[in-house]
Amino acid sequence: MTDDTGILQHATYAIPDRAHGYCADDNARALIVTALYNRLRMEQDLTPLMQTYLAFLNDAFNQEEEQFRNFMSYDRKWMETVGSDDSHGRTIWALGTAVANAPNDAILSFSARLFDQAIETVARLDSPRALAYSLVGIHAYLERFGGHTATRRVRATAAEKLHTQFVHNANDDWPWLEDTLTYANAKLPHALILSGRWMPNDEMLQFGLKSLQWLLDVQTSEEGALSIIGNHGWMTRAGHRAMFDQQPIEAAELVEACAEAYRVTRDDHWVMEARKCINWFLGHNDLNVPICDFKTGGCCDGLEPSGPNKNQGAESTLVWLIALLTMNILYEERTLYKEPAQVEARTQPS
Q1: pLDDT tens-digit readout, 6-39
Q2: Contact indicator for 228, 243 with CB cutoff of 8 Å
Q3: 67 strand-pairing partners
Q4: What's the number of CA atoms in the CB half-sphere (13 Å) around residue 117?
Q5: Is 42 exposed, middle or buried (0-12, 13-18, 19+ CB in 10 A)?
Q6: Phi and psi at residue 164, in whole multiples of 5°?
Q7: N or C, fewer C-beta in 10 Å, the chain?
Q8: What does the pLDDT read at residue 341?
């Protein structure tokens, strides 16, 4: 899926579809995959890929607007002046992750410089998902540069905005900041958990844990499998719920949020929930069919009423890889945390 420009957005089956070009969203996700892979210190050197994705994101940054463009055609022409706020947030997430896991000084310096150029825009954002993605990236950045005052200030502003949106709309039966559950839901409690732990703000942290557990509860079938809310109508506060189409991004971001909840609580409940979510990719879902494809290394573009969408685009493949890497990192951390006598025999998700 990657050429010398960046990663292409879409595929027909497992063949890259050049007609739709590239986007910053997917190049940001691809940078996260390579950074997490580097964190695990695996044998393959992915530095050249990291350089390609960073170069794309650097070109995406509109210096005058201080915001990232998103869509680029296959002939390398930008199709907009700036992208969405969510796209900006995802790119901040990727750059922070690259800073935290950079394999060399060149990638560290380049990622940090671009992050610093784009971070002040986050304080002006209001989109909850843009704020959430940014907060996850800010946390990663602060793992490397914990004393960076400007970034800590932006984190406080963004986290309070997100928390306030939850407080103003949520109640015990609907602990959510909007009246409809739509897309990329788990990134919101993920951001509250991270920010609440490290700012610190215990009310924010508890709100994040509560809303994450609620997301899991409303998306678990009677058989105990993950049953993702579909994008053909979503789920409303009034009680309507769509079963299909189910998107891989939802399962992947639940895995990430559960991993963070475990880091905060050290409660194995969250490891089990993360395992349930990654098993959605492996076939433990409403149709009992695998979504990931071990022959191609990709992931189908969703679960439809008749089965998997056989196209394996960049977003679906990348979020599957992020989820898989997150689980491997989680198991390593859990093994290090437990006393040797307490550690269970390590197994792959099943």
Answers
A1: 999 999 999 999 999 999 999 999 999 999 999 9
A2: no
A3: 62
A4: 20
A5: exposed
A6: -65, -40
A7: C
A8: 43
CB 129, CB 67: distance < 8 Å: no
Q: Which are the contacts of 261, defined by CB distance < 8 A and separation ≥ 6?
A: 193, 208, 209, 212, 267, 270, 273
CA gap 35, 338 in Å, rounded: 26
Query: What is the three-class DSSP state of 96?
Result: helix
Say if residues 182 and 137 touch (Cβ distance below 8 Å). Answer: no
343 band by pLDDT with thresholds 50, 70 and 90: very low
Whole-Å CA distances, 80 to 24, 70, 91, 145, 345: 12, 7, 16, 33, 51
pLDDT band of residue 336 (cuts 50, 70, 90) is confident
What stretch of H or E contains 326?
Answer: helix 314-337
Q: Are 208 and 190 in contact (CB under 8 A)?
A: yes
| Residue positions counted in the chain | 350
Q: Decide if 137 contacts 93 (C-beta within 8 A).
A: yes
The per-residue b/e assignment along 173-209, b for 16 or more CB within 10 angstroms, e otherwise, is eebbbbeebeebbbbbbbbbbbbbbbeebeebbebbb
